[in-house]
Amino acid sequence: RPRHRPPCRDPPGRRERLHHRPAHALHTVQELAGRDYPGSGDEKVSFQVVTEHARSIAYLIADGVLPAKDGRGYVLRRLMRRAVRHARLLGIDQSVLAPTTASVIANLGDVWPELTDQANLIEQVVTAEEESFTRTLAQGTRLLNAAITRTRESRSGSLPGETAFELADTFGFPLELTVEAAHDAGLTVDEERFATLLDEQKKRAKTGGKAKTADALRRQDTYRELSAHLPRTDFLGYEHLTAEATVLGLISGGAVTTSAPEVSDIEFILDRSPFYAEAGGQIGDTGTLRTEDGTLLRITDTRYGLEGFRVHSARVVEGELRTGATGEAAVDGDRRKGLMRSHSATHILHAAVRAILGDHARQQGSLVESDPLRFDFAHFSALTPEQLTRIEAAVNGHVLDDPAVRAWHADRAEAEAAGAIALFGEKYGDTVRIVDIGDFSRELCGGTHVAHGSQVGTFRMLGEGSVGSNLRRIEALTGHGALRNQDTERRLLDEVSALLGTRPKDAPEALRKRLDTLAAAQKQLGRLRDAELRSHAEQLASASRQVPGGRIISQRVPGLGADDLRTLATNAVGRLRDDRAVVVLGTEHDGKALLVAAITPGLLSAGTEAAHILASAARTVGGGAGGTGPSPAPEAAASKPSTRP
């Protein structure tokens, strides 16, 4: 070793980078709050919460997490809401998450490049979430502060569980924030009562059909009974749509049996099967089983009874099925082809969505049917028409390139190292199946797929919409379904073009002109109608009769609807100089008598109501009086007559 160490030298430019490093998130919070970070007290905690949570929020969003009601998204949403609340405690009324996360990105983006890459996404997500929670916070805070005041006045020391539950259930106010606010006020929260109310709500949801029924639980016991002595089914469906198979187990009426007669609805287990069991979003196969003795079954569904235990649901069409029977199991080939097209299209769609919207737009669920497919993904806003067009074009572009579709197996670590996408929440074994579509899609998947991309056919997007917080859904058609949809739209366009007397390409502009003309005509018609009603009201007012106590107009007016009749009565009573006047008008509408009564403010102030007069008039024509509500409030009576149909 040298006797003297050489002096430590910084890498070139390090001192300059440190000197010019952007402001820390804490400095941003201080600027927004208008004061320095304190040495102690509650404000110190609030400064720390906003600063540290901003860092966590930025990292989570950059890692693909979006705010949600459960799972990782719930953790993120809780962090964001807690940071916003502490910012409000510091007196920061403006946006706080966007500038603080921007400081995090500016300081740590060179160390964590994902922060810089996802900077726009982080800004959009935190801005939208803070705006949404600010509205929730304002409503919930008013209710919470009022409840805290009442609790203090009652000297109970504990905020009722009902209040905490209402804040959470109605305003989306997390229990943790309620507990924290109560603690700051020197109170506790009846969390036991809150838990009871939450449990009752869950039970009500289960009663509504979200829980397993007793019949389903009994069926699981039956599956366990069979699985104890039956081998797992050998699945042949990747290569074959038909197979010779033997019936190993039979279930009828929820119980294990050895035979099932004609017209029975049953479930059965095969030793080998080409039927795909519902999993990974792809629905189960359907088809037939014909045994050697001539028994025929129509298979309506295939699913996993237990993990790895394949159950076929069927109806005996002919003959009697017995355990041990051997026959040919055949998958509905056309339906399976549609499912394969949809499943491969779903993978291609996933790749296109992530390429256009960003890596955060990961698949959150899917329903792979032959027509249509459904694809759920994480995203914080509605897609623009331009984005939808780009996604559809990207999918069709990949399909036309006719990429090879290849399935291979590896252990989980190898698959992840190879960049295979695993869906969050799905269960995978130690050995996984990976499906590659060209060089742009690689996912862990056990489903069935086409051999080449072009077999997907045409991809046609039906629409996109929200199905939850930061969760979007695309529905689309492939193959024959997409072609039928295009044919239908073309026929509709041809029909519209024929009605407009123009060519299909000119139909939109022609229709726009027609609608503009119609709108102008309706506006003109409305003005003429108003003028006619005013003129008619003037005639009615001039024909009013003097009676003891005031003036009255009572007349049948044919050809008017309820709204026009009400307008006419209001205009007429407003033209009478006497402050004690009544207007009763009647007409026939859809074979029924329709009456309207209106009175002047003077009678209303004297305690007379239009409803009383209308009831008497209705009895005269042999009916009863309904109405849209009571007479106007006293403060409105001086300037507004009372009308009631």
Description:
- The protein contains 20 helices and 25 strands.
- The longest helix has 36 residues, at 119-154.
- Helix 3 (42-62) runs antiparallel to helix 4 (71-89).
- The chain folds into four domains: 18-204, no CATH class; 228-331, Elongation Factor Tu (Ef-tu), domain 3, CATH 2.40.30; 338-486, Threonyl-trna Synthetase, Chain A, domain 2 (Threonyl-tRNA Synthetase, Chain A, domain 2, 2-Layer Sandwich); 526-644, Diaminopimelate Epimerase, Chain A, domain 1.
- Strand 9 and strand 10 form a beta hairpin.
- 47% of the residues lie in helices and 22% in strands.
- The strands form seven sheets. The chain has a six-stranded antiparallel β-barrel. A five-stranded mixed β-sheet has the order 21-22-23-24-25, with helices on both faces.
- The chain is an alpha+beta fold and 645 residues long.
Quick structural gist:
This protein has 645 residues and is α+β, with helices and mostly antiparallel strands. The protein contains 20 helices and 25 strands. It has 4 domains: 187 residues, no CATH class; 104 residues, Elongation Factor Tu (Ef-tu), domain 3 (Beta Barrel); 149 residues, Threonyl-trna Synthetase, Chain A, domain 2 (Threonyl-tRNA Synthetase, Chain A, domain 2, 2-Layer Sandwich); 119 residues, Roll (Diaminopimelate Epimerase, Chain A, domain 1).
- Per DSSP E runs of 2 or more residues, the count of β-strands stands at 25
* Cα shape: extended
**End-to-end gap:** 105 Å
Total helical segments: 20
The amount of helix comes to 40-55%
Structural class: alpha+beta
Strand order of the largest sheet: 4-7-11-10-9-13
Q: How would you state the average pLDDT, rounded?
A: 85
The description of the largest β-sheet is: 6 strands, antiparallel, barrel
Runs with pLDDT <50, length 5+?
Answer: 1-20, 627-645
Q: How many structural domains does the protein architecture include?
A: 4
The radius of gyration is 36 Å
Q: What percentage of the residues does DSSP assign to strands (E)?
A: 15-25%
